[in-house]
Amino acid sequence: MIATRSLFRIPVGRRHPAPLPIASDDTAARRLVVTVMLLAIALDQSVAPALAPAIGMVAGVFHLSLQAAAWLDMSFNIGYFCAIVVSLWAIERFGKREYLGWSLCAFALASFVCACAPNAAVLTIARALQGASAGGRQIETLPVIFD
Protein backbone atom coordinates (compact mmCIF):
# COMPACT_ATOMS: atom_id res chain seq x y z
CA MET A 1 0.00 0.00 0.00
CA ILE A 2 1.28 3.48 -0.88
CA ALA A 3 1.78 5.86 2.03
CA THR A 4 -0.62 8.78 1.76
CA ARG A 5 -1.18 12.08 3.50
CA SER A 6 -4.11 14.40 3.89
CA LEU A 7 -7.80 14.10 3.23
CA PHE A 8 -7.45 13.64 -0.53
CA ARG A 9 -5.11 10.60 -0.56
CA ILE A 10 -2.10 12.12 -2.29
CA PRO A 11 0.88 9.76 -2.28
CA VAL A 12 3.71 11.00 -0.06
CA GLY A 13 6.75 12.13 -2.00
CA ARG A 14 4.86 13.28 -5.09
CA ARG A 15 4.91 16.99 -5.77
CA HIS A 16 1.55 17.13 -7.55
CA PRO A 17 -1.48 14.93 -7.05
CA ALA A 18 -2.66 12.42 -9.62
CA PRO A 19 -5.37 13.51 -12.07
CA LEU A 20 -9.03 13.16 -11.17
CA PRO A 21 -10.29 9.59 -11.55
CA ILE A 22 -12.59 10.55 -14.43
CA ALA A 23 -11.84 8.77 -17.69
CA SER A 24 -11.11 11.05 -20.63
CA ASP A 25 -13.97 9.55 -22.66
CA ASP A 26 -16.50 10.04 -19.86
CA THR A 27 -17.96 13.32 -21.15
CA ALA A 28 -21.07 13.21 -18.96
CA ALA A 29 -19.00 13.17 -15.77
CA ARG A 30 -16.72 15.91 -17.07
CA ARG A 31 -19.71 18.07 -17.99
CA LEU A 32 -21.14 17.58 -14.52
CA VAL A 33 -17.86 18.68 -12.89
CA VAL A 34 -17.59 21.71 -15.19
CA THR A 35 -21.23 22.65 -14.55
CA VAL A 36 -20.88 22.43 -10.76
CA MET A 37 -17.67 24.48 -10.75
CA LEU A 38 -19.10 27.16 -13.07
CA LEU A 39 -22.22 27.40 -10.90
CA ALA A 40 -19.96 27.88 -7.87
CA ILE A 41 -18.20 30.74 -9.68
CA ALA A 42 -21.52 32.32 -10.70
CA LEU A 43 -22.85 32.03 -7.16
CA ASP A 44 -19.67 33.55 -5.77
CA GLN A 45 -19.95 36.53 -8.12
CA SER A 46 -23.63 37.11 -7.36
CA VAL A 47 -23.41 36.92 -3.56
CA ALA A 48 -22.29 40.51 -2.95
CA PRO A 49 -25.27 42.24 -4.62
CA ALA A 50 -27.69 39.76 -3.08
CA LEU A 51 -26.17 40.11 0.38
CA ALA A 52 -26.15 43.92 0.53
CA PRO A 53 -29.77 44.25 1.74
CA ALA A 54 -29.23 41.45 4.26
CA ILE A 55 -26.31 43.29 5.91
CA GLY A 56 -28.78 45.88 7.21
CA MET A 57 -30.96 43.15 8.69
CA VAL A 58 -27.96 41.44 10.30
CA ALA A 59 -26.79 44.78 11.68
CA GLY A 60 -30.21 45.23 13.24
CA VAL A 61 -30.19 41.77 14.82
CA PHE A 62 -26.74 42.27 16.37
CA HIS A 63 -27.39 45.98 17.16
CA LEU A 64 -24.38 47.10 15.13
CA SER A 65 -23.31 50.62 14.31
CA LEU A 66 -22.87 51.65 10.69
CA GLN A 67 -19.10 51.27 11.02
CA ALA A 68 -19.39 47.72 12.44
CA ALA A 69 -21.83 46.78 9.66
CA ALA A 70 -19.32 48.08 7.09
CA TRP A 71 -16.61 45.88 8.64
CA LEU A 72 -18.97 42.94 8.48
CA ASP A 73 -19.49 43.60 4.79
CA MET A 74 -15.84 44.30 3.94
CA SER A 75 -14.30 41.43 5.91
CA PHE A 76 -15.28 39.00 3.12
CA ASN A 77 -13.55 41.16 0.49
CA ILE A 78 -10.41 41.58 2.58
CA GLY A 79 -10.10 37.82 3.04
CA TYR A 80 -10.88 37.25 -0.64
CA PHE A 81 -8.14 39.53 -1.92
CA CYS A 82 -5.59 38.24 0.60
CA ALA A 83 -6.26 34.70 -0.64
CA ILE A 84 -5.76 35.75 -4.25
CA VAL A 85 -2.33 37.15 -3.36
CA VAL A 86 -1.27 34.00 -1.50
CA SER A 87 -2.89 31.48 -3.83
CA LEU A 88 -0.03 31.11 -6.32
CA TRP A 89 2.38 30.23 -3.53
CA ALA A 90 -0.11 27.79 -2.00
CA ILE A 91 -0.82 26.10 -5.34
CA GLU A 92 2.90 25.67 -5.95
CA ARG A 93 3.42 24.34 -2.43
CA PHE A 94 0.43 21.98 -2.09
CA GLY A 95 -0.80 21.30 -5.64
CA LYS A 96 -3.92 22.38 -7.50
CA ARG A 97 -6.39 19.74 -6.39
CA GLU A 98 -5.23 19.71 -2.81
CA TYR A 99 -5.57 23.50 -2.59
CA LEU A 100 -9.01 23.46 -4.21
CA GLY A 101 -10.22 20.68 -1.91
CA TRP A 102 -9.08 22.49 1.22
CA SER A 103 -10.58 25.75 -0.06
CA LEU A 104 -13.95 24.08 -0.51
CA CYS A 105 -13.80 22.46 2.94
CA ALA A 106 -12.76 25.74 4.57
CA PHE A 107 -15.59 27.59 2.81
CA ALA A 108 -18.14 25.07 4.06
CA LEU A 109 -16.79 25.29 7.61
CA ALA A 110 -16.69 29.10 7.56
CA SER A 111 -20.25 29.20 6.22
CA PHE A 112 -21.39 26.96 9.07
CA VAL A 113 -19.66 29.25 11.60
CA CYS A 114 -21.37 32.27 9.99
CA ALA A 115 -24.74 30.58 10.35
CA CYS A 116 -24.12 29.77 14.03
CA ALA A 117 -22.34 33.01 15.00
CA PRO A 118 -23.39 34.11 18.50
CA ASN A 119 -22.14 37.70 18.09
CA ALA A 120 -20.88 40.19 15.53
CA ALA A 121 -17.17 39.58 16.21
CA VAL A 122 -17.44 35.86 15.42
CA LEU A 123 -19.54 36.65 12.35
CA THR A 124 -16.99 39.17 11.06
CA ILE A 125 -14.07 36.76 11.52
CA ALA A 126 -16.02 33.92 9.92
CA ARG A 127 -16.88 36.17 6.96
CA ALA A 128 -13.16 36.96 6.51
CA LEU A 129 -12.35 33.22 6.53
CA GLN A 130 -15.21 32.64 4.13
CA GLY A 131 -13.75 35.25 1.78
CA ALA A 132 -10.27 33.77 2.04
CA SER A 133 -11.50 30.31 1.12
CA ALA A 134 -13.67 31.72 -1.68
CA GLY A 135 -10.66 33.53 -3.14
CA GLY A 136 -8.73 30.28 -3.22
CA ARG A 137 -11.62 28.47 -4.83
CA GLN A 138 -12.09 31.17 -7.46
CA ILE A 139 -8.46 31.15 -8.57
CA GLU A 140 -8.10 27.39 -8.74
CA THR A 141 -11.43 26.24 -10.19
CA LEU A 142 -10.80 26.72 -13.89
CA PRO A 143 -7.24 25.26 -14.02
CA VAL A 144 -8.49 22.14 -12.22
CA ILE A 145 -11.42 21.75 -14.62
CA PHE A 146 -9.30 22.07 -17.75
CA ASP A 147 -6.26 20.18 -16.47
Strand content: under 5%
- Total of helices: 4
Order of adjacent strands in the largest pleated sheet: 1-2
Domain module count: 1
List SSEs in N-to-C order: EEHHHH
Number of strands: 2
Radius of gyration: 18 Å
Average of per-residue pLDDT values? 76
From the structure provided, what is the oligomeric state, counting identical versus distinct chains? single chain
Largest sheet: 2 strands, antiparallel
Low-confidence stretches: 4-8
End-to-end Cα distance: 27 Å
- What helical percentage do the residues reach? over 70%
Structural class: mainly alpha
What is the overall shape? elongated
Folded structure, characterized:
The protein is mainly α and about 150 residues long. It has four helices and two strands. The chain has helices at about 25-60, 65-95, 95-115, 120-145, and strands at about 5, 10. The longest helix has about 35 residues, at about 25-60. The radius of gyration is 18 Å and the shape is elongated.
Question: Which key phrases capture this entry?
Answer:
two-stranded antiparallel sheet; single chain
Report a brief summary of the structure.
The chain is mainly alpha-helical and 147 residues long. It has helices spanning 27-61, 66-94, 96-115, 120-145, and strands spanning 4-5, 10-11.
